[in-house]
Amino acid sequence: MKKSLIIPIIGLIILGVSAFLFFNKNEERDNKNVTLPSSLFDTVDFYDMKPLNQKELDDFYIVNFFASWCKPCLAEHPLLMELQSKGIKIIGINFRDDEENFVKWINEHGNPFFHIIRDDGSIAYEMGLIGVPETFFIENSEIQKKVQGPLFYEDIQKYL
Amino acid sequence: MKIFKSIYNLFFIIFFSLFINISLANVNQLQDYYKTIRCLVCDGQSIQESDTEFAINLKEQIQKKYDSGMDLKKINQELVNIYGEEISFSPSNNHIILWVLPLLTLVLIFFLVRNKYRKN
User: Fold this and answer.
1) Do residue B108 and residue A128 have CB atoms under 8 angstroms apart?
2) At a CB cut-off of 8 Å and minimum separation 6, what does B53 contact?
3) What is the ipTM of this complex?
4) Which residues contact B73 (CB under 8 A, 6 or more apart)?
5) Phi/psi at A134 (nearest 5 deg)?
6) Whole-angstrom Cα distance, residue B28 to residue A1?
7) Domain ranges of chain B
């Protein structure tokens, strides 16, 4: 091999390794540090004031952040109703919303939630929310998947 | 008695201005900190500049933690744990490789060009 080629080749290898480390690190970060906050299980349901009992939840359940002011939330709402009709439990977290608008919205569009709470933003912060709607798929108390933005049929079909 | 009243007034003014100064310093410290936090749903804006629900909520949560006595270093660590390094405009030293990478690329280009001219 020509001597003059050694330095460029070493440079390319360093670039490749750096790129691999950088992109690999990004993938690892997703959801790893976000867990379900304990404060979520200290909440009471907005309607019947019952505390959230972890034992009542199945191995698989969903946590959905929504708001009455959020248009995409309305778009995914029928899918949440469908999930509920299949027996999947959904914890609904109403994010920074006006109470009157929230109640009106639920009355108008239906309540697919097993447990519903109103959040001033603290639970959203702990779960790393960047906007509504956002949905967390929980399996064996761990976040398996996170969907930012409205749900599509492809996101939920395997659970139906 | 007049002198006591004057001393009392003087102390009142000193304490009041101290209190105002400390409050303003805290506010400024937080405002400066907000400038270092990236709004993840905006294009290149900090949460200080943004009026999105994400930025407003983050500012409120940071303010709450700060008021409860948590220092900015701990708050920053918590933010990075939750949102990842991208939340901060000033990433930690472990991204030194990203700073070195452009230099390495330049060196690489230099050698490639030099080799080409040598051949010619």
Assistant:
1) no
2) A95, A96, A131, A132
3) 0.76
4) none
5) -145, 135
6) 61
7) 2-89, 94-120
A49: closest CA of chain B, how far (Å): 25
Q: Which residue of A has its CA nearest to B64?
A: A122
Which of B52, B64, B104 is opposite residue A15, by nearest beta carbon?
A: B104
CB-CB: which of B60, B115, B118 is closest to A121?
Answer: B60
**A8/B57 Cβ within 8 A:** no
Nearest CA in chain A to B58: A125
Instruction: State which CATH number among 1.10.287.110, 3.40.50.980, 3.40.30.10, 3.10.180.10 fits the domain covering A38-159.
Output: 3.40.30.10
Contact of A145 with A136, CB cutoff 8 Å? yes
Q: Give per-residue pLDDT as tens, A13-49.
A: 888 887 887 776 554 445 556 788 999 999 999 999 9
pLDDT tens profile A100-141 = 999 999 999 999 999 999 999 999 999 999 999 999 999 998
For chains A and B, count residue pairs whose Cβ atoms are closer than 8 Å: 64
Domain B2-89 part of CATH 1.25.40: no
| Per-domain residue ranges of chain A | 1-30, 38-159
Q: Do B54 and A131 touch (CB under 8 A)?
A: yes
Collapsing DSSP to helix, strand or coil, B6 comes out as: helix
Give the neighbor-by-neighbor strand order of the sheet with A90-95: A115-119, A90-95, A60-66, A134-139, A142-148
